[in-house]
Amino acid sequence: MPIAQAVDLTSSQATSPGQPKHHVTKPTSNHASDTTNARAATAEHATIDEHNRVADRRALHSLATELQHHLCPQIATETLDRFKWSGRFRHDPEALVAEIQSVTHLFGNETDLLAAAASILQRRGLRARLAIASTLGAAWALANHAPSHSRKPDVSDQNAPSFDFFVAPPERTHEALQTLPPSALRLNPTDVETLHRLGIDTVGSLLRLPRNGLATRIGHGLCQRIAQALGEIDEPILAIDLPTEHAAELELEYPTDAVDLLRDRIIRLIDSATQNLRPLNRGVLRLRCQVEFTESPPVTLESGLFSPTLDLNHLSNLMIGAFESHHIASKVSHLRIGVLQDAPLASTQPSIFGPGFENDAQTDWTRQTDVARLIDSLSGRLGEDAVRGVRINRDPLPENAVTEFPLTQSRGRKLATARPKRNRSKPRSGNQPPDSPLPRTGHRAGVPTATDAGRRPLQLHTSPQRITPLSHGKEPVPENQFPPRFRFRGRVWDVRQHWGPERIETRWWQGPMIRRDYFRVELQDGTRWWIFRDLNQPADWQLHGWFD
User: Fold this and answer.
1) 7-29 pLDDT tens trace
2) How far is 387 from 383, CA to CA, in rounded Å?
3) What CA dihedral angle connects 467, 469, 472 and 477, to 10 degrees?
C-alpha cells in the first residue's frame, strides 16, 4: 500500500443559471507526501501500518462532515463503479464532491473558496489537490491528473503545506481536458489499456474520434464518461445527511482543574446531550468530549460503544475514564459533549412478574448486555484497536477468509453480524480436477468431506511460503507426479502420504484469476502440511499451513 493516502474533493458551480460547477481537492499526509524522502527513509525510521478500510472511510466521512459545516451543505463522497478506476490502488472512495453553485459569493471568489477548504485540510495535517470546473468529471480529472503547480494557501505562514489549485472556467472545460490521459475520465483499466493499444494517449485525441465508433469498439460506458466530463448529461451527487445535533456545552465561569467538579459537569452534559434521544428510542454509539484549557491546546476525547445505550452511568464512566487518562496541563475553561453516532435501541419484552423477578435491571431498554459493557470498558482503557472481532469474508482464498475489525466500530460490527452467503468456490477434496495433471492419490482412507473440519489446518502462514519439490534422484520432478520430497528452510522433508487435490480458484470478475490445487501431506516424522501448487505456474509449490 502507498505510504501517503490521497483524498480527492470535488464540487461544482454554475456555467449558467441552474447548471452546477465542480471543485476537486486531493489532500495527502504531510510527512509522507515527498516520494523521494519516503524512499530515502531507513527501516528503523519507517512505520508501516496495515491498510484499515473502515478507518479510512470513517476519516473521509469525518472530513466531509467538517466541510459540510464550514464550506457548503452539498458534500458527498464519490460514487464508485463496479470496477476499479484506472490508477487507483484500492476500490474505495478517495474523493469528496461538493456543489458550490450557491456558496461561492460567500467567500468572495472561487480562489478564496479553495483557500478556505485548504485551511480545513491543513488543520488535519493533509496536503491537497483542489479543482473547480463546470462538471464533476472535469473537476475530478483536474484534481487527479493535472500537472502539479503547488503553492501555499497562506503566504504569511511559511510552514504551511503546499496545495495544488486548478480552476477551469466554463468556456474552457474542453481545453482543460485536452492534455490529460484517458484515465482522467474515470475509466476502468480494461478501457484504458484498449485506448493505449490504439495509440490514444490523451483526452484530446479521444475527443477527436467519432462517438459511434468508440461505442461499438470499446463500449457505451466510455461515451457516457465523455458526455459527463463535457456536461452533455447530468451527473447528480448524493450528499451525505447532516447528522442531527445532540450536544451540550458549558463555559466555566471560573476555570478549574478540580477533578471532582469536572467529573460532575461531564455527567450533567452527557445527560443533557442525550435527552432528545430518549423519545426517539435511539441510543448512543459514539460520544465525543471536547475540552478547552486556559493555557494548553484543546483536546478531543472519543468513546465508541459496541451497542447503543442511554445508560447515563455507563456513558459517564466511559467518558470520565478517557478524561482522567489525559494529563491536565492547565485549568479547564470549556466543555462540550456531543453524540457523534446514534442507533435504534433494542427493545425487550419485560417479565410479566415485574422487574424484581430477575433481581437486576437488565429488562431496562436503555441498558446493554454484560458483554457489550465489557467490550466498551476494555476499548476505553486499552484503545479501540486493541479490542477486535473477526468477520468471515466471501473471498475463496484461505488467506482472505477472515478480517479483523475493532468491535466498537459500527461499520465493522454490521459486517460481522450480516448473514454469511454460501461460498461459490469449487473445492474438490479427494477428487482429481478435470485439468489436473497429477494422478489421484492411492490413499483414499480419511479423505475429508466438505463438512469435515479436518479438511482445513488450524494455523496458516501470514503469506504462503515457497517450497522446492525434489525427486529421489537429481532429475526434476515430472509435472504429472506428486513430489516425494520437499526442501523447506534448508531441510529436506520426505513425504509419507498425501490427499488431494482440492481445487480453489477465484472468480473471473475479481481480476486476474488465481487457481490452486491444495494437498494435505503427511511427512515421515508425522508432521502434516497443507500445501498447494499454483496452476498458473505448475512448478510453483507453496506451504500455506500446518495441522497440529
Assistant:
1) 454 444 433 334 455 655 554 44
2) 7
3) -170
- 3-class DSSP state of 57: helix
Which positions ≥6 away from 402 have C-beta within 8 Å? 390, 391, 392, 393
Of 544, 542, 548, 501, give the one whose Cα is nearest residue 528.
Answer: 548
Strand partners, 547: 528
Q: 155 CB contacts (<8 Å, ≥6 apart)?
A: none
Query: How many CB atoms sit inside 10 A of residue 491's CB?
Result: 7
User: What is d(CA 368, CA 313) in angstroms, rounded to the nearest whole number?
Assistant: 12
**Rounded to an integer, what distance in angstroms lies between the CA atom of residue 217 and that of residue 212?**
9
Retrieve residue 455's grid coordinates.
479438511
Residue 151 DSSP code:
B
How far apart are the C-alpha atoms of 353 and 332, rounded to whole Å? Answer: 48
Grid coordinates of 257: 482543574
CB 27 within 8 A of CB 121: yes
Task: For residue 445, give every residue at least 6 positions away whose Cβ sits within 8 Å of its Cβ, in sequence order, or none.
Answer: none
* pLDDT tens string 389-437: 888 887 788 888 888 888 876 544 444 444 444 444 444 444 444 455 5
Q: What is the C-alpha separation between 478 and 32, in angstroms, rounded?
A: 49
**pLDDT tens for residues 313-365?**
889 888 888 888 877 778 999 999 999 888 888 765 555 555 544 444 444 44
